[in-house]
Structure formats: C-alpha cells, structure tokens
Design a protein that fits this description.
By secondary structure, the chain is of the alpha/beta class. The chain has eight helices and 13 strands. The strands form three sheets. It has a seven-stranded mixed beta sheet, sandwiched between helices. The radius of gyration is 21 Å and the shape is globular.
Amino acid sequence: MEMDHTAILLIDCPDRKGVVATIADFLYRHGANVLHADQHQDNDQKLFFMRVEWDLADFDIDAEAFKREFLPIAAKFEMNWRLEYGKTRPAVAIFVSRHLHCLVDLLYRYQIGEFQCVIPLIISNHTDAKPLADFYGVPFHHVPVTAANKAEAERRQVELLEANNVSLTVLARYMQVLSSDFVARHPRKIINVHHSFLPAFSGAKPYHAAFERGVKLIGATSHYVTDVLDEGPIIEQDVIRVSHRDNARDLIHKGRDVERTVLSRAVQWHLQHRILCYGNKTVVFD
C-alpha cells in the first residue's frame, strides 16, 4: 500500500489498560483497514507510545470529523496525539557548507522518489554546493555567515524558510552553530548529522579526537537539534570498523559513508512519521 492512500496516528500517554482496544475499536467503527501497528511501553516512566497506519479506502471520516470524534478518547487517556496523511508532501530545506557527500545522497534519494517531500531550497554559507543544486534543479541561496553578521544571516534564513513553508530543516554537514532563537522557532523540526557516535567525541573535529584515542569503531549520529550543542534527541546511529593502520584522514573518508546513510534514514523516518520524542529520547517505530 502506497503512503498516498494511508493515514497515521501517533500517540503518547500514561500507560493504562484499554488504550489499544479503544483505538482499534474507534478505527474499526469508521471502516479503517489497519496496515501497521506498533507500540512501546517505557516501564520506568509508565508511558505508552503507539503508531498505527491504516488504508483510507473505506474510512468514513475526514480530518475535521476525526478530531471532533477522537478528542473525548484523547482526553480520557490524557493523550498527546497527532494525525498525519501519507499523501502530504512537506517542504524540506537543506543547509550545507563545504562537505557535500550528505547533500549528494539526499538529493539523489529525492530525485528517485524515496522521500515523501518537496525540496524547495538549499541554503549554504559557501558557494561550493551551487553546481550540485543547479544539476538537481533546486534553488540555491548563498547566505554568508560571519561572527559579525550571524544574527542578520539567520534572519535571512528564517525569511527563506517561511517564504517556502518549510516544515523540516536538514543540516547536511552545515558547519555553523544555530542560535537558541533559531532553534526555538523549529522545535523537533531540525535534523543534524554529527560525524561521531555521540556522546563520544562531540565538537568540531571528532575524527581527529577518535584517532588520538585509538578507537576501533567510528560512527555517526543523526539527532534533532536543541539549543544544547550535539545533545538533542538521537534518531539514528551507525558505526564502521577501523584499525591501527588508519590515520585521521582515513577515518574521515570511511566516516562519510556512515554519515550519509545515518542522515538519510533519519530524514526518511521523520517524513514517514515514525518518530516520537519524549524528554531527550526518541521512540523510532519499525
């Protein structure tokens, strides 16, 4: 079943008996054919999480009616919830600096239809990515950033995001720290890739730090951005083995493959509405 013909309900609430049965009964009564259902309990915090996706072919209520009829259930179980439709194509902006491997991967996957989105713009503090943006037909905006003009640059970036109705910003090796004000405008709507298996080796040169430490595994981490650098809720991580024969440059080269796949997975899962955040953690549904 293509996502174009499905709806997705995501909920989190206190863990109580009857949540699953009540949701299943509600969907059944309105003609839903459930395609996927997944759930998770955090026993320490006594929280319940669920994602359910169903075919819309025989579903007999629209979004407004769903909200009206589901609200009493949500209130009864103290739910945080949202309803998404697979046919929606959110606008995604990509920020990049001079390392282009993650951008290449994202644009290729976008071109072949892997991502349920539109990419209306690429923003960069350098011009290195412009030929690539031109090749894929995505408008490119050069917004230089210096210590002196950072606030002005961010105002321009915000204008571009708002003008294009952007709902997700992807930092594809964008080597600038976003201000707290910028991040606060887009809570859980900015995904970054960090070239390290966080929390190890945070900061600007993690591969060099990993080389000095003599690690045998290096990795990458994709996470939502918060105003605390490199400490937002983690979405995906992966690793690759290295050895004593590898120097710092080898680690950088090997790490690029991990970075691009980790970031692409995180973007895909966000677009498929598979992620729920709570505290500084995520639930990522299969």
